[in-house]
Inverse folding.
């Protein structure tokens, strides 16, 4: 198993800068996930690691060895493709063993490794079938089997689950986690499904326009997004954003905006402390973007008389019952916010009420740089 | 209700028209074959009477026995088979290799376009325009009346066709399969032989059938470059035509016999024509 290190790696396709100055160390046996919207350079990063593409600049090291000039077959890396890319004219057994055969391994050894991989993926009864005789989930397992039999230094997986239906995807997600824990592989995993990124990874790398936005453990990235993009990308439903204006009044921070009337949200020093913002309090001035996740907003259908200074009037537009929770779309002025509430709270569309923010979970982003003010 | 009936009757009318057209096409395609076979069994007088005999009531095997008695006919038959098989094999192999390298994006799009057009140019000239140069070159190489001469010529003429056809098949193969093979450690040659060629078998079968038929039936160069040792069947057939006589019977008999190997070759390759060989490789 191996460490993978990227140093100032960039890739340009004609006018398109697919990847810009990637600096990253994937530790031995670490599970790192690349997430980001379509076209952000995730597959490009994998292809560069595999050697299927050459970097325009920078160096890639595997186990400390510079591999820029090493051909893909010699890098000892396995790749799983979104489309599975099984050999249609070969049986499952031949598909799984092909990489070993090409490397001239003894036949008996190949057979035992294929058996072992097939058993661990529970496809040993399918070994004599052709790919076209398999279901999508089974093909997926064969593709994984092909990767693990070689016992490579690292695994590269490019959206391996995206062709499965929702239910199977969740099941395979859990199996993948177990599988790679067992084979102790260094894994570089690409997905645009943030649930996969959150559940599988030791660390996630959020990318956008070929640039790394943030690297860190999933919960850290979720709870402390470095900028507006990361905050908006992770989480479902998305984080809510409100344009606002901050000013200090009587030692309290007033958060106001076009859709937030004066006194709608007032923060004390204790609140800033909870948000980790106390040290940066001087930044809390002027225009900013307020971010708050749906689960950190509470809705209460109380009358205006009960309102305190940190309540925001709103009207429920849509109620989406999800079973385990309800998602509310509410209007605050001309803004729409998403809120998740408990399934038992009986709320109707059209209802008016008040929003309370969990003040420890507020995020403020700079109006222009879009950086988290805490960062 | 009325509208519905009109719709149904319109559909019926449409289907009737379709049958009529199909029948017309069938007749147009099948009649020459029918005419060829029946003529092969006709007495000589019956082949030249007017009006022609559409439905012959008497027949003979005379034409066939005459043809089979032609001196060296067995050898000419073998010549045809050998030359067609070898030039098909060579053409498909070399053409596939060329097409494979053109299907990879090693070179700029423009350059590939130029090469593709360049390759096609060979086929744009009417073959007769290059016949004399070929004749001179072959004679200069001391290859007159040899199998090699025709094999080289036929291979050269089929290559553009093979390359263009196979390029289409190769480009249709999913890119990811090739990448998977690269990751499995295959060299370019291993990928070509073990992955790409097997997957392109339907394409190869189609291409091979056409190439074989071309070489098997090719007359112009065969008549120019061979005289006796490497003579092929089309040249023999041409021998039944002269300014003094036209031997319809023997000509048809030999032509009818020539169809048989083509049928066999097509039959052998046909099982590779099954569609959807790549089905299941990638999620469609
Ligand atoms: N071979 C290529 N030639 C030209 N441009 C390319 C090539 N491969 C990728 N690109 C471009 O590079 C950018 C990054 O592509 P990449 O495939 O890495 O995106 P991705 O993050 O994997 O997206 P997706 O989630 O859609 O798979 C895109 O703008 C893409 O159009
Ligand atoms: Mg991709």
């Amino acid at each position: 198993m191996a460490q993978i290190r990227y140093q100032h790696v960039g890739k340009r396709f004609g006018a398109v800068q697919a990847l810009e100055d990637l600096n990253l160390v994937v530790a031995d046996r670490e599970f790192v996930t690349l997430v980001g919207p379509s076209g952000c350079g995730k597959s490009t990063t994998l292809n560069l690691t595999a050697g299927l593409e050459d970097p325009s600049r920078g160096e890639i090291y595997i186990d400390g060895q510079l591999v820029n000039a090493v051909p893909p077959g010699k890098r000892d890396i396995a790749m799983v493709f979104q489309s599975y890319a099984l050999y249609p004219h070969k049986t499952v057994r031949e598909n799984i063993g092909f990489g070993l055969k090409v490397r001239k391994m003894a036949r008996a050894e190949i057979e035992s490794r294929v058996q072992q991989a097939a058993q661990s993926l529970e496809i040993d009864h399918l070994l004599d079938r052709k790919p076209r005789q398999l279901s999508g989930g089974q093909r997926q397992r064969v593709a994984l089997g092909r990767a693990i039999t070689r016992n490579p230094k690292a695994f590269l997986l490019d959206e391996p689950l995206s062709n499965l239906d929702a239910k199977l995807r969740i099941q395979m997600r859990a199996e993948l986690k177990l599988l790679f824990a067992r084979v102790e592989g260094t894994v570089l995993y690409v997905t645009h499904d943030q649930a996969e990124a959150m559940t599988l990874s030791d660390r996630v790398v959020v990318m956008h326009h070929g640039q790394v936005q943030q690297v860190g453990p999933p919960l850290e990235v979720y709870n402390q997004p470095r900028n507006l993009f990361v905050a908006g990308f992770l989480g479902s439903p998305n984080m809510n954003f409100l344009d606002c204006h901050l000013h200090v009044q009587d030692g309290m921070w007033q958060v106001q905006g076009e859709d937030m009337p004066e006194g709608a949200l007032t923060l004390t020093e204790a609140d800033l402390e909870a948000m980790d913002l106390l040290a940066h309090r001087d930044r809390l001035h002027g225009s900013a973007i307020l971010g708050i996740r749906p689960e950190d907003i509470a809705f209460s259908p109380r009358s205006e008389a009960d309102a305190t200074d940190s309540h925001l009037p709103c009207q429920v537009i849509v109620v989406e019952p999800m079973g385990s929770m309800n998602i509310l779309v509410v209007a605050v002025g001309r803004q729409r916010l998403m809120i998740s509430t408990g399934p038992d709270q009986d709320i109707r569309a059209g209802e008016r009420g008040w929003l309370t923010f969990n003040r420890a979970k507020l995020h403020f982003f700079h109006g222009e740089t879009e950086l988290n003010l805490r960062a | 209700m009325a509208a519905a009936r009109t719709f149904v009757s319109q559909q019926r009318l449409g289907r009737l028209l379709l049958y009529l057209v199909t029948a017309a096409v069938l007749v147009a395609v099948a009649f020459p074959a029918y005419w060829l076979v029946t003529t092969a069994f006709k007495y000589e007088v019956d082949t030249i009477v007017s009006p022609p005999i559409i439905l012959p009531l008497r027949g003979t095997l005379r034409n066939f026995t005459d043809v089979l008695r032609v001196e060296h006919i067995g050898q000419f038959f073998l010549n045809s088979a050998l030359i067609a098989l070898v030039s098909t094999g060579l053409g498909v192999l070399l053409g596939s290799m060329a097409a494979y390298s053109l299907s990879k994006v090693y070179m700029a799009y423009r350059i590939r376009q130029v090469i593709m057009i360049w390759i096609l140019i060979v086929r744009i000239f009417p073959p007769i325009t290059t016949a004399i140069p070929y004749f001179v070159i072959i004679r200069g190489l001391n290859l007159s009346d040899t199998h090699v001469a025709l094999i080289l010529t036929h291979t050269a003429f089929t290559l553009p066709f093979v390359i263009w056809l196979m390029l289409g098949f190769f480009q249709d193969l999913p890119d990811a399969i090739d990448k998977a093979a690269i990751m499995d450690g295959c060299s370019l040659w291993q990928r070509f032989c073990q992955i790409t060629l097997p997957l392109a078998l339907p394409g190869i079968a189609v291409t091979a059938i056409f190439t074989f038929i071309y070489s098997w039936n090719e007359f112009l160069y065969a008549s120019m470059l061979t005289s006796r040792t490497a003579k092929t069947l089309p040249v023999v057939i041409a021998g039944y035509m002269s300014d003094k006589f036209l031997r319809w019977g023997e000509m048809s008999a030999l032509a009818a016999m020539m169809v048989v190997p083509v049928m066999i070759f097509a039959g052998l390759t046909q099982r590779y024509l099954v569609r959807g060989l790549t089905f299941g490789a990638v999620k469609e």
